[in-house]
Design a protein that fits this description.
Helix content is 41%, strand content 11%. By secondary structure, the protein is α/β, with parallel strands linked by helices. Strands 1-4-7-10-13 form a 5-stranded parallel β-sheet. The chain is globular. It starts with 6 loop residues before the first helix and ends with a strand.
C-alpha cells in the first residue's frame, strides 16, 4: 500500500496562513537589527533584582556579611547590562505590528533608564521589607521572615509588581507588563504594573487575586485569595472601543481588609479601616470603619 501524500493539504494550509488578511493585527513585522524582548532575559533580571533586594535568599546562597558588598556589586553590574538591553528592546518594539526605528539614541536612553531603576533599588528594598513584615505579622503559620521571603507566593508577585511599577514610572514600555504577567503565571496573582500600592501590603494565600491598572491601595492593606479589584464597565469611544487610561478601578484606603472571593468593582472607595467580607459583590462606596458582610 503506497503512503498517502499530504503535500497538497499542507501547501493549502501554508497559503491560507500566509494571506495578509488572515494575520492582520496578529503579525509582528520585525526590522533587521532591532532587538526583541526576551522572556528568558527578563526572568534573569527579576532573579537578579531579588538577589540584590534579598541577598542570600535568592541568587548565591553562600553570601555573608563579609562578601555581601561584592555579591551585590556583581549582581548590580549584570542587572544593568541585561536591563539596558531589554529596555532597549522595549523601546524598539512597536505596539501595532511593526518595530519602531531603533538608533543609538534609544540605546543611550535605555542605559539611562536602567541606571535610574538601579538607583531606586534601595527604596524598593525598604518598601518590600514592609511587605515581608506584613505577611509575617498577618499569618500565624509563618515562623520567620526567611520563610516568608523564600516560600510565600505573595512576596514573589508583589516583588515583581514593585519592580515593574518602578519601570513603568520611568516610562519603560512593554517590559513592566511582561514582568507582572510572569508572576501571574507563577503564582496566580494578577497585579497590573500601573496600580498604586502603599507599604505593608500583603496577600494571604493569593491564588486568583486580580488588581486592576488604575487601583489605588493605601498602607497596611490585606487581601485574601480570590479577591477581584476590577472595573464595573468600560466606557466606549465613537468607534465602540474601550477608552484607555481612565480611572475605573477601586480605591482602598489605609488599614482595609478584604476577605476571600470578594469582588469590588468600579471607581469606588473603601474607606480607612473598613472590612469587606468574603464572597460578596461591592459596587458602592464603603464608609471608613464599616464592616460589609453577607446577610444571613
Amino acid at each position: 500500500m503506497s503512503p498517502i501524500n499530504f503535500t497538497h493539504i499542507l501547501t493549502q494550509a501554508v497559503d491560507e496562513l500566509s494571506e495578509s488578511e488572515s494575520y492582520k493585527g496578529l503579525f509582528h513585522q520585525h526590522t533587521d537589527g532591532n532587538p526583541l524582548p526576551s522572556a528568558h532575559a527578563l526572568c534573569n533580571i527579576v532573579e537578579l533584582a531579588r538577589a540584590i533586594i534579598f541577598p542570600g535568599y535568592f541568587g548565591n546562597s553562600t553570601v555573608n556579611s563579609r562578601t555581601v558588598t561584592y555579591h551585590i556589586g556583581v549582581n548590580v553590574e549584570r542587572l544593568f547590562d541585561l536591563l539596558a538591553d531589554q529596555i532597549w528592546a522595549g523601546l524598539c518594539f512597536g505596539g501595532d505590528g511593526e518595530c519602531n526605528a531603533c538608533n543609538e539614541y534609544q540605546r543611550e536612553e535605555a542605559a539611562q533608564l536602567a541606571a535610574n531603576f538601579i538607583s531606586r533599588l534601595p527604596q524598593l528594598r525598604r518598601v518590600l521589607a514592609t511587605d515581608v513584615e506584613a505577611a509575617y505579622n498577618g499569618d500565624p503559620a509563618a515562623h520567620s521572615f526567611g520563610e516568608v521571603i523564600s516560600c510565600y507566593p505573595a512576596i514573589r508577585a508583589i516583588s515583581n509588581y514593585r519592580i515593574a511599577h518602578e519601570l513603568l514610572l520611568l516610562g519603560v514600555p512593554l517590559i513592566p507588563r511582561i514582568i507582572t504577567e510572569m508572576a501571574h503565571s507563577e503564582t496566580g496573582i494578577d497585579i497590573h504594573p500601573g496600580a498604586q500600592i502603599g507599604s505593608y501590603f500583603t496577600i494571604d494565600h493569593g491564588t486568583g487575586v486580580v488588581i486592576g491598572e488604575t487601583c489605588i491601595i493605601g498602607n497596611n492593606v490585606k487581601l485574601y485569595q480570590g479577591v477581584t479589584l476590577g472595573a464595573k464597565s468600560f466606557p466606549l469611544d465613537a468607534d465602540g472601543k474601550p477608552i484607555k487610561g481612565i480611572p475605573r478601578h477601586p480605591i482602598l484606603e489605609d488599614d482595609v481588609i478584604v476577605y476571600s472571593n470578594a469582588t469590588i468593582l468600579g471607581r469606588i472607595t473603601v474607606g480607612r479601616g473598613a472590612t469587606v467580607g468574603g464572597n460578596i459583590w461591592v459596587t458602592e462606596n464603603v464608609p471608613a470603619g464599616a464592616r460589609v458582610v453577607q446577610r444571613r
